[in-house]
Amino acid sequence: MLQYSYLQVLDFLTTIAFLLNGVKEGNPLVRLAIDYSPNPITGLLAVKVAALGLGLYCWRGGKLRLLGRMNLMFAAIVAWNLTALIVGTAA
Question: Cys-Cys crosslink for 23: which of 18, 41, 57, 90, Cβ 3.0 to 4.6 Å?
């Protein structure tokens, strides 16, 4: 659960970096939350709180294999985000 929480924070930070650089959110559900909130950070925080709730549900429910798979997915997303930010700023 600690890794999952850490990855959520990293995804939050990289998403903010994208938004500051004028890049639109790729996930349609997150984009909807960002668009309909008073400001983008509030919408993104709401999504991350919900994601942490799902992670906590998996952890407390013994669904550790699912939590591990979500960790792999978010690790890949964060790596992709960082790569895209580096390539985008280098160009």
Answer: 18
